[in-house]
Design brief:
This protein has four helices and five strands; from the N terminus they run αβββββααα. The chain is an alpha+beta fold. It has a single domain, classed as Peptide Deformylase (Alpha-Beta Complex). A five-stranded antiparallel sheet has the order 1-2-3-4-5, with helices on both faces. A hairpin with a 5-residue loop joins β4 and β5. The two termini are 25 Å apart. The model has no long low-confidence stretch (mean pLDDT 97). The structure holds nickel (II) ion (NI). The site of nickel (II) ion has 5 residues, from α2. Nickel (II) ion (NI) binds next to α2.
Length: 168
């Protein structure tokens, strides 16, 4: 696999609907994928990107550092736990669904555990916007997209963008 050949895939690419498989070993190949994903996320000015979005059904996603002090965070084989179940609604977009915005209800407080690109255990807790990003990206690892959560009004509002994507 040539990481430089990876690119962002859009709906309705079938890999976006797969349940991704755990990463067995965090090795140089995984790190090369991560590097390429950061390039793609930055080019697209995204705030998160999951491996299935570049055609790899692996349990791995990256997020942008909101303060831009680092290149961002890497979460491999992430496990999410709700620590504050108050639901909040906010508008979400997705690099695999250009032109589409959906209001999504999500629990506010999340604990995330996983591995970083060096294979070390990492953990974080947040009730900030990043907790929403973790949940959005984790949905990608389970084949879920924000269009699965549209209300009938949103389906109507996004009808044209969705149809254009589905026609290719
Ligand atoms: Ni997305």
């Amino acid at each position: 696999m040539d990481p430089s050949a990876l690119d962002i895939l859009t709906h309705p690419h079938p890999v976006l609907r797969l349940k991704a498989e755990p990463v067995k070993t965090v090795d140089d190949e995984v790190r090369a994928v991560v590097d390429r994903m950061f390039e793609l996320m930055d080019e697209a000015e995204g705030i998160g990107l999951a491996a299935p979005q570049v055609g790899l059904a692996m349990r791995l996603f990256i997020t942008r550092d909101p303060d831009e002090l680092t290149r961002g965070c890497v979460w491999i084989n992430p496990e999410l736990e709700v620590v504050e179940d108050t639901k909040e609604s906010d508008e979400e977009g997705c690099l695999s669904l250009p032109g589409i915005l959906v209001n999504v209800d999500r629990p506010q407080g999340i604990r995330i555990r996983g591995l970083n690109e060096h294979g070390e255990s990492v953990e974080a807790v947040s009730s900030e916007h990043i907790a929403r990003v973790w949940q959005h990206e984790n949905d990608h690892l389970n084949g879920r997209l924000i269009i699965d959560r549209m209300s009938s009004m949103e389906r109507l509002r996004n009808r044209r963008a969705l149809r254009d994507l589905e026609r290719g």
